Amino acid sequence: MASAKPLSRFWEWGKTIVCVGRNYAEHAKEMKNALPSEPLLFLKPSCAYVREGSPIIRPSYCNLLHHEVELGVVIGKKAQDISPEVAMDHVGGYALCLDMTARDTQEECKKKGLPWMLAKGFNTSCPVSDFVPKEKVPDPHRLKLWLKVNGELRQEGDTSSMIFPIPYLISYISGIIPLQEGDVILTGSPKGVSAVKENDLIEAGIEGLLTVRFQVAQQRSRT
């Protein structure tokens, strides 16, 4: 039986955000990372979602907050240990997402061999656009993503450049954890990631489909 919850508001009730790192070769190169031989995965909590009209909050412990614009794939029905051939049947739609990253914190975590929660999973670390129904996207591997900061173009890339395509990602992830309706997969970021600071205006979009705007605010240190 279909869920009574509207998929168009997945950010209100979806449980899991699965993120794919280094899925664009040029981004891996700019970060001085080797190309992955299999998907590099990490999670964000669903409470990390933030919608247009509310700010992206730079954590008090972060001195270097980076933007990463990504195509989000919204799961439309449960997928567990499925093949790539049927994976797209489990897609309900898409969204534009930002993977906000406390880069200085991430580098410290890497050096110490620690998880990335502080770097990737903080409050407002996943800005998200409106939902785009699957029917409006004939080919998700032919979408142009872009991001500007204060009017300056920082990121521009095409989803055709993904190392691991969407059906493979869904199949791979569903073999590890069941993907539920309302879950989202962030499919990786093209090159051009850079820092943002308090009061910066981020504008991003999927060409021909949608745009979003978010302002950056600063979390004050707790005393």
TrEMBL record:
EC number(s) on file: 3.7.1.5, 4.1.1.112, 5.3.2.2
Entry keyword annotation includes Metal-binding: yes
Entry-linked Gene3D superfamilies: Fumarylacetoacetase-like, C-terminal domain
Source species, domain of life: Eukaryota
Pfam families found in the cross-reference section: FAA_hydrolase
Keywords: Metal-binding
Catalytic activity field: a 3-acylpyruvate + H2O = a carboxylate + pyruvate + H(+); oxaloacetate + H(+) = pyruvate + CO2; acetylpyruvate + H2O = acetate + pyruvate + H(+); oxaloacetate = enol-oxaloacetate
PANTHER family: ACYLPYRUVASE, ACYLPYRUVASE FAHD1, MITOCHONDRIAL
Similarity comment: family membership: Belongs to the FAH family.
Name the record gives this protein: Oxaloacetate tautomerase FAHD1, mitochondrial
Species this chain originates from: Phrynosoma platyrhinos (Desert horned lizard)
